[in-house]
Amino acid sequence: MMNMKYNTLLFPRKANQTNFSLFLLSMRLLFGSLLMTHGYAKLMGFAAMSASFPDPFGIGSRYSLMLAIFGELFCSVAFVFGFLYRLSMIPMIVTMAVAFFFAHGGSITGGELAFVYLVVFILMYMAGPGKYSVDHWMTNSGKRRR
């Protein structure tokens, strides 16, 4: 009997919706809050960074920095709450792609953090926000009222 408990614990048959949604919530909280710290640092150092920030799109360092702050700070807040989830992830994915391919030259040795964020955000984009999100609450609240 005891062996059966360990087998079930170590080798569960199938992930249920609740467990998967809790996993997605924990990923949103972890990676969203980590990316927010980068955006917040850029916001606090805006004056010092705006003249020398990389400008891969040719729009000026100041505007490139503003886009990075938007993607890393404001979109991360929406990501954490699961609000306009996929829409908010597009600037985050673009920011990490630019950071990895342009700022770090596509090098894993110098841009591993940007690469990890990029891969995680692409996978999270495909997975969706889960049921513990504002988007889920908004789409299902209309169904309950009918």
From TrEMBL:
InterPro entries: DoxX, DoxX-like_oxidoreductase. It comes from Paraprevotella clara YIT 11840. This is DoxX family protein. It is a multi-pass membrane protein. It holds the Pfam family DoxX. It is found in: Cell membrane. Keywords: Cell membrane, Membrane, Transmembrane, Transmembrane helix. Coiled coil: none annotated. Belongs to the DoxX family. The chain crosses the membrane at residues 20-41, 61-83, 90-108, 114-134. GO terms for cellular component: plasma membrane. Signal peptide: none annotated. It comes from the Bacteria.
